[in-house]
UniProtKB/TrEMBL annotation, chain A:
Protein keywords: 4Fe-4S, Electron transport, Iron, Iron-sulfur, Metal-binding, Repeat, Transport
Region Disordered, annotated ranges: 444-465
Entries under InterPro entries matching the protein: 4Fe4S_Fe-S-bd, 4Fe4S_Fe_S_CS, FTHF_cligase-like_sf, Helical_ferredxn, LUD_dom, LutB/LldF, LutB_C, NagB/RpiA_transferase-like
Stretches with biased composition (Pro residues): 454-465
Keyword Transmembrane: no
Record-linked PROSITE patterns: 4FE4S_FER_1 (PS00198), 4FE4S_FER_2 (PS51379)
Domain 4Fe-4S ferredoxin-type: 291-321
Protein name: Lactate utilization protein
TrEMBL record, chain B:
Record's protein name: (Fe-S)-binding protein
Pfam family, one: CCG
Lineage: Bacteria, Pseudomonadati, Bacteroidota, Cytophagia, Cytophagales
Residues in Cysteine-rich domain copies: 3-83, 127-221
């Protein structure tokens, strides 16, 4: 199943599509207001981009610097080549504690590694403590957005979910009451948590510390109540110095939600006395992407989600239509690196309008990379055969003036003479599902031009040598 | 100044009046453009579909056709953007580099090369301006809402200089229309929905004439307007400007 088919399913509910589009557009407008309010915002983007480029060019060195600094702080550092190693390492740490109850704050990496089902399968209770994450955990769904994981759900959907799982009154959809129910429920889970797992927004090579940005404070609550903190990070989360952090925190929340800064920017550097802190550093395909010069810059991503909020396709197709942990434009350039065949349709799920590139706080050339992935997929025969052969045929036609002219005449005549029901048959003309074809004119521009009195003589084009 | 007119393939076949208006408008502005008859297409439909290799002969044909002109002007920013940005796949001979730099969108040519940003004439209608993404974000012909709240741009200035015109204030100034080349059929559902939403913004805010400088967006939007039988006329900016300038 490709993106277009999944998108069509989402589009079936036209009102929900409108609501989804308008909700995310509202977030995009909040972002705009926040951005307009910082006169040096474009300079900040450039600076952030350069810091990330620099860091990626010396990633091995910064990772080693980070590891040494973290170890000096008394933190256990683990390296995971892939998702399986990441999951096994975390289960091992939990088992060493004899623990069975885990509280988690938001981490797209653990989603990517499918950690939750793995731990549950091994007898561990895992509770997502971010409200949106908890909602979709109840529903056994994947996040549809990296910052707003339950953005595909309305408050009525949440009410139904909480009625089933938390016993709230049937039909209750008041956000205040639903949030209060989640608070009470999560408070007990926090207090019982033995191991806290968090993601990492930034890892600082110089200090060996990690920084976690949340709006709910759930990372702090989880970590401070549990005996053990496990922070999971992709290798690309490194920044060199603590002084670099401000560049990113100024960009992150403004780009993500239009807030000047996230409510909590939590620094975790060393374990509290008598407690343990672990950092799991994960590759899982990232070095492969680092080895692709055209797509390397995708690793600069700080996971703000701005490209999703602005993407006119994402807003109308929903995050699940991408069928990848990270949806939207950034997901469409990350996913083919992981599985080119499975995600072959994603780089085509874009008009290449370029808005993603223009909102990206670290200046990833997202739409250019989408275009380049299309070429990689075309060369690898991962595009539909009809398209491939159609384009080959078109290539022949358009490289020849004569064939092109005759073909155009024929097509216009056919369009004029054939009945509307045939030219607009939606079974083979997808254009006509919602659109009329242009009314075919009797003569093309070139036919008209040839009949005009010619002005000054044209320069003779040089023929190929 | 030797100026060639590039009439993109779909305009040549379906919208000859846009090519004619472009030619006549340039003439009125003192530029006699020639139409080299061997021209076909810029190759973008193939390349955007992942078939850049199959487009290379089209690129070469394009360069051979236009290499002896100082400027190549087209009423479609998308094609121009493709020539400028994606002809990097050819060996960068002097001819290739020249053609890439010489390619101009019509409105960009009028504004940047001819340095014209006001025109005499009246167009007493409420006009909705559709910004093409490739013209706006690709060729920087207009401000972007991602960067600034100020709505400004080459075509906006030219249109605003006409007597009696009222420009529609859209809720979303620069959202993509959803055409996207082969996207319009490979993702037909999303493409149509995007176009319907774009047109709805114009209807809501009172557009009588919907215009822009890129006929590919307008072809898609016109298809939606005609299907839904909406009381909106779709015209390329060249048609409006050529119609009002004496």
């Amino acid at each position: 199943m490709n993106h277009a088919i999944r998108a069509d399913k989402f589009l079936l509910d036209a009102d929900r599509t409108t609501w989804h589009d308008e909700t995310l557009w509202f977030v995009r407008e909040k972002r705009d207001k926040a951005v307009y309010g910082v006169p040096e915002f474009q300079e900040l983007r450039e600076l952030a981009s350069q810091i990330k480029n620099h860091t990626l060019s010396r990633l091995d060195l910064y990772l080693q610097e980070f590891e040494a600094a973290a170890q000096a702080n008394g933190v256990h550092v683990h390296w995971a080549a892939d998702a399986a190693e990441h999951n096994a390492i975390i289960l091992d740490i939990i088992r060493q504690q004899g623990a069975t109850r885990v509280v988690k704050s938001k981490s797209m990496l653990t989603e990517e590694c499918h950690l939750n089902p793995y731990l549950i399968q091994h007898g561990i209770e895992v509770v997502d403590t971010d409200l949106g994450e908890r909602i979709i955990q109840f529903r056994d769904e994947a996040p549809s957005h990296i910052v707003l994981p339950a953005i595909h759900l309305k408050k009525e959907d949440v009410g139904d979910t909480f009625h089933t799982h938390l016993g709230t009154t049937k039909g209750e959809s008041d956000p205040q009451r639903l949030t209060e129910a989640a608070r009470q429920h999560l408070r007990a889970k926090f207090l019982a948590g033995q191991v806290a797992i968090s993601g990492v927004n930034f890892a600082i090579a110089e200090t060996g510390g990690v920084v976690v940005c949340t709006n709910e404070g759930n990372a702090d609550l989880g970590v401070n109540l549990a005996q053990v903190h496990i922070a999971a990070m992709g290798i690309e989360k490194i920044i060199p110095r603590l002084t670099d952090l401000g560049v990113f925190t100024r960009l992150l929340a403004r780009s993500a939600t239009g807030q000047p800064v996230t409510t909590y920017t939590s620094h975790f550097t060393k374990p509290a006395p008598g407690k343990e802190m672990h950092i799991v550093i994960v590759d899982n395909g990232r070095t492969q992407q680092l080895g692709r010069p055209d797509f390397r810059a995708s690793l600069k991503c700080i996971r703000c989600g701005a490209c999703m909020n602005t993407c006119p396709v994402y807003r109308r197709s929903g995050g699940h239509s991408y069928d990848f942990t990270v949806p939207g434009p950034i997901g469409a350039i990350l996913s083919p690196n992981i599985d080119m065949k499975k995600h072959a349709s994603l780089p085509f799920a874009s008009t290449l309008c370029g808005s993603c590139t223009d909102v990206c706080p670290v200046k990833i050339d997202i739409h250019t990379q989408l275009y380049k992935w299309r070429q990689v997929l075309g060369e690898a025969n991962e595009i539909p055969a009809s398209k491939k052969w159609g384009m080959k045929f078109m290539g022949r036609v358009l490289a020849s003036t004569r064939v092109y002219g005759l073909g155009g005449q024929f097509a216009r005549r056919a369009l004029r003479l054939l009945p509307h029901g045939l030219t607009h048959a939606t079974s083979f003309n997808a254009w006509a599902v919602a659109r009329e074809l242009p009314a075919p004119p009797k003569q093309s521009f070139r036919e008209w031009y040839a009949k005009q009195p010619q002005p000054a003589p044209q320069p003779q084009p040089k023929l190929p040598a | 100044m030797k100026v060639a007119l590039f009439v993109p393939c779909y305009i040549d076949q379906f919208y000859p009046q846009v090519g004619i208006a472009t030619l006549q408008l340039l003439e009125k502005l003192g530029v006699t453009a020639h139409f080299p008859a061997q021209q076909t297409c810029c190759g973008q439909p193939l390349a955007n579909s992942g078939c850049e290799r199959d487009a290379l002969p089209i690129y070469q044909h394009f360069v051979q056709t236009f290499q002896d002109y100082d400027y190549v002007v087209a009423p479609s920013g998308s094609c121009v953007y493709h020539v400028r940005k994606h002809f990097d796949k050819l060996d960068q001979t002097a001819a290739v580099q020249h053609v890439r730099g010489a390619a101009y969108d019509l409105i960009d040519f009028i504004s940047t090369v001819l340095k014209v940003d006001t025109l005499p004439g009246a167009f007493p209608h409420k006009v909705g301006l559709h910004l093409s993404c490739h013209g706006q974000r690709g060729l920087h012909q207009a401000n972007e809402s991602e960067m600034t709240p100020v709505r400004d741009g080459q075509l906006r200035r030219l249109l605003a200089s006409l007597d009696g015109i009222e420009l529609t204030h859209l809720n979303r100034n620069d959202e993509c229309c959803g055409f996207g080349g082969t996207f319009c059929v490979s993702e037909a559902g999303i493409s149509a929905r995007m176009g319907q939403d774009r047109v709805a913004d114009h209807v809501l805010n009172g557009t009588q004439v919907l215009t822009g400088s890129d006929m590919s967006c307008l072809m898609h939007l016109e298809g939606i307007v005609r299907r839904a039988k909406m009381p909106i006329r779709v015209m390329h900016a060249a048609e409006i400007l050529n119609g009002v300038v004496a």
